[in-house]
Amino acid sequence: MARPKIALIGAGQIGGTLAHLAALKELGDVVLFDIAEGTPQGKALDIAESAPVDKFDAEITGANSYEAIAGADVCIVTAGVARKPGMSRDDLLGINLKVMKSVGEGIAQHAPNAFVICITNPLDAMVWALREFSGLPTEKVCGMAGVLDSARFRHFLAVEFGVSVKDVTAFVLGGHGDTMVPLTRYSTVAGIPLPDLVKMGWTTQEKLDAIVQRTRDGGAEIVGLLKTGSAFYAPAASAIEMAEAYLKDQKRVLPCAAHLDGPYGLKDIYVGVPTVIGAGGIEKVVEISLDKAEKAMFDKSVEAVKGLIEACKGIDSTLA
Ligand code: A3D
For residues 100 and 77, what is the distance between their CA atoms, to the nearest angstrom? Predict the structure, then answer.
């Protein structure tokens, strides 16, 4: 059987890391696409030259034309601009909306059967616009944010408790922005929920609140340190986990920005929720019960995403 084809639209910091991880994990052949001439070709050749050392079998190529993504099974989209210090994710909206239009049209023409994972910010609005521009089925287009936000939460919790990250599960819902909703009640160490760990004296409520806030600010913390761009190792690893779940029909339960038309009482919006990812794409949206405080936070996050989607409609009349 031929190897799956993975198209990476955008060959910047995340795109290059995605290519490297996909190759190391032998998920399939990789095509890096970018408008910058030489960048995708250079990164592809560099990674291909690491194959004899790391011993993976995968064809890695770079291109500046959409024909190269023809027939891709998975497209991961990072095309656009990233944040610099002082910028919010929302500041990127106008520029990246135009990029989503060309990417959506390129995917529709050359890889209409692909499972599409968007990473470009502001994430929830961009994945919504990308779905509109591409016209692909909603279950085949999703956004990566929840896996990353949850991974950041898990890392901070593992450090606080002095336990392996492997035994820490965590849940972050809502939009990928300052209003994201880390759910302590559904986050555990080996099945023990965080509120119980507070009662058991493993940490204090103040420390837990600080970790929740650090998770919300996780992207900005890295932007502040790097100064020239935003996080790319953990975002790439997170999207690869989602791509692998699709390619191997793993039925993983992963939080991601999924199209909602009914669940959580929402209509035609993308926002972070637990999903099941398998060969059908987003095979299921998991509707969990939220208490009053959690619901209030989730509603606030949804309102922020709605505002960004309305802003997209204001900029591009074809979306209205
Ligand atoms: P960067 O290294 O700048 O790469 C972006 C690439 O996109 C560059 O190589 C550009 O040449 C290319 N590009 C620009 N316009 C186009 C176009 N029209 N067609 C094809 N390629 C184009 O950025 P990055 O890789 O660090 O980040 C990419 C995106 O991911 C940004 O929007 C970030 O804000 C976003 N991001 C999201 C998360 C989430 O958790 C959702 C995390 C980190 C970064």
Answer: 9
Q: From ligand 1's centre to the CA of 234, what distance in Å?
A: 14
113 is in an annotated binding site: no
Query: Of 179, 87, 175, which Cα lies nearest the Cα of 123?
Result: 175
Distance between CA atoms of 291 and 185, rounded to whole angstroms? 10
Tell whether residue 89 is among the known ligand binding residues.
yes
Neighbours of 249 (CB within 10 A): 12
pLDDT tens digits, the chain, 320 residues: what are they? Answer: 999 999 999 999 999 999 999 999 999 999 999 999 999 999 999 999 999 999 999 999 999 999 999 999 999 999 999 887 888 888 889 999 999 999 999 999 999 999 999 999 999 999 999 999 999 999 999 999 999 999 999 999 999 999 999 999 998 999 998 889 999 999 999 999 999 999 999 999 999 999 999 999 999 999 999 999 999 999 999 999 999 999 999 999 999 999 999 999 999 999 999 999 999 999 999 999 999 999 999 999 999 999 999 999 999 999 98
Whether pTM exceeds 0.80: yes
Tell me, in angstroms, the distance from the centre of ligand 1 to residue 161's CA. 34
Alpha carbon separation from 225 to 12, 86, 230 (Å, rounded): 18, 12, 9
Establish whether residue 133 lines the binding site of ligand 1, counting it when its CB lies within 6 angstroms of any ligand atom.
Answer: no
For atom 7 of ligand 1, which residue has the closest CA? 79
Q: Domains of the chain (ranges plus CATH)?
A: 5-144 (3.40.50.720), 146-313 (3.90.110.10)
